[in-house]
Amino acid sequence: MKKKNRKYVLFLLLLLLPAAVFISINAGFTDYHVTDILRILAGGGSGKENLVVLQFRMPRILLALLIGAGFALSGCIIQGITRNPLADPGILGINAGAGIMVLLYVVLHGAVSFGSVFGLPFLSLIGALAVGGLIYALSTSRTKGVSSMRLVLNGVAIQAGINSVMTVVIMKLDDSQHEFLAKWQAGSIWNANWKFVAALLPWIVMGITYLIFRSRHLDILAMGDDISFGLGVAVAREKYRLLFTAAALAAACVAVSGSISFVGLYGTPFVKKTGGLRPPASDTGMCPGRRSSGANCRYCCKNGN
Known about the structure:
Layout: H1 3-25, H2 34-41, H3 47-82, H4 94-109, H5 114-138, E1 140-141, E2 145-146, H6 148-171, H7 175-186, H8 194-221, H9 225-230, H10 235-257, H11 263-274, H12 287-304
Antiparallel strand pairs: 1-2
């Protein structure tokens, strides 16, 4: 696709975000007119209107945007490094590793409090790094390096094993914990509030900022290890840094929404078809579009639930 057409597609995706926000604000049992929504957002709403729009709907909307962007960028990094279109944090077991840490916390400490919301992403990151490191080690050989096929197969197998353990543990809990964790394990933002938004926002902002400065390195890495080494890139170091960023983004999203699969997988083929790639050919040229398409995809999941 031509560069001019790519700009039009990106511009269209960015326009869809505020349109989706506006539609989602008015989606629910209580309908509001356009002027009413603008008045409420400007601070002129009544107590009931502020409760419905600002306390119930807006946190859910913003959380959906952040989660979509986080999973999409995490999948973008993983697919760019492995050059595998089937790779995403859910399939590779990163989500499952992050999820089991949240499960252990809830089982040992009970309900999630205000302070624990900000600590859960760090616990999730530990689990994601542990499982991701295990999968990476099992998929690497001294002679051939990382095998993309082994990466996917090992990730699927380990993810299935962890999810089975989580299901067995959840079934043995009391009714209140079982209900909370069952919904969380399936992936949901039904209980979203501003503290979840505040806990997730710094992770997404730092991840996006880092990727903006390292996008060219990911472009080169997507061309292969030999070419990357020949162009002066520290291949192993850059891979570790980028994979750590991908794990951190996915872990933070899992901590507040549960394991939502295929959001990171969906963005790449969609943006390839609509926005194309930038030279050199890689997935990082699609990062702006992936943030938009990932967030819009998360909207579809939210409204579908």
